[in-house]
Amino acid sequence: MSEKKRILHVGIDDTDSKKGMCTTYVGAVVKGELEKIGVKIVGLPKLVRLNPACPFKTRGNCSVAMTLEVSDEEIPMVKKIVLEKVGELAELKVETTNPGVVFYKNKEIPPEVRAFSKKVVREIVKIEDAEKIADEIGADLHKFKVGRGIIGALAAIGNVLEEDRTFELIAYRTPENRGRPRKIDAESVLAMNSKIFPETFDNLDPSTGEIRITPHTPCPILYGIRGESVSSVESAQKIVKAGEPIERMVIYMTNQGTDEHLRKAKISEIKPFWSVSVKGKVSSSPKIIPGGHVIFNISDETGKIDCAAYEPTRQFRDVAKNLAEGDVVIAHGGVKEKPEIPLTINLEKIEILALEPKFLKRNPKCSKCSKRMKSEGRMKGYSCVKCGIKAPQNSVETVPVDRRIDVGKYEVPPRARRHLARPLVREYRVKPQTLEF
Ligand code: ATP
Predict the structure, then answer these.
(1) Which domains are assigned to the chain?
(2) Using CA of residue 150, residue 151, residue 156, residue 160, what is the dihedral sign?
(3) CA within 20 to 30 Å of 130's CA: 141, 143, 233, 264, which one?
(4) Which residues sit with their C-beta closer than 6 Å to ligand 1?
């Protein structure tokens, strides 16, 4: 680096609405504009997913950041470009869109910003919390309207993705095609998946065959390919065929698929909107409620909490349905608080550590004809209708019940999965995730 150059981190968040736009696209455009004027982007831009249970999110709660190498003279121009692009592209007319941009001039990311970032991925923070830290470290904040986006923008800068990380190659559509059906050759996605999975993951939903690389929203994304390395997503991209032009492409380094949002917790500590991993015993048998949702309760030494496998989790509900009182599990998911409903963990994954043996009582068999005998009434023993042979009350047979589930880890299908949830297929590359409780 020449002496005059220094590091400038840029974070951006809260630019989109349900009707359009996407913060990753704003990041891609900003990157392109800065490169046009010769600014060097250090490494890859980051796509940082924040707490998926956050009530302020539009969709996937994503924020972006990038690291630039700039001279002091370039900084005003860089800031102007970033702020102009955010102002131009953000859905400012939508009440809930409140962009924030953060600039931070320092190579090292201070520990308090890293800690703040972890908190934003797992809990809920206030705008003032971001302002306080920015003030302490001397970061430059820019709020559009309420400016809630400064939370995500600072969190994106603070997430150094050093524990676990994945990559996503995103291809964006040209403006005239946005909002129209996406033209992707499904066969080419199947071919890519059979060649590169699991180095790229979440390409398909294995149970339905549904293509998962294309979003279903009117946003500018044509497709996003998630993978373990830059080379895997690049190789995959060469196989996928698009039937429409691609405006631009970017590869983000990201915390997607890492489980970074899950915070180990005792039941009494849990707060609404946290994302948690809780070890407990199933303390009420699963119930199926209207809508096809499966609800059961778990308890630990500090309390009880409901767990829900909602209808969109499809076959995952079969695991939940077959749980029984006494089973030991680790429940992973976001904690929702709804009026008149107790705090509930919205299950993303469940690990069954131990199954409580279950037994069924059956009338004894006749020693002569082997037919099941009939009860003669409470505490009165049994008799064979055919042979008349009698048997005492304690001759009742105890038969183990087939639990239909095994000890192990189970996850919701890709269509219902949080961006941050680590697919089980990734577990072979990272440390085994049985959390110590
Ligand atoms: P997209 O994924 O398409 O970019 P989104 O789902 O990321 O949309 P945003 O429009 O960015 O949603 O809105 C989320 C808002 O919530 C942002 O302003 C962000 O700063 C804020 N936010 C994110 N996580 C937290 C959190 N843990 N606590 C408080 N505020 C948060």
Answers:
(1) 5-158 (3.30.70.2200), 166-254 (3.90.600.20), 262-357+403-417 (2.40.50.1010), 359-400 (no CATH)
(2) positive
(3) 264
(4) 13-14, 16, 22-23, 50-51, 54, 56-62, 98, 120, 124-125, 148-149, 151-152
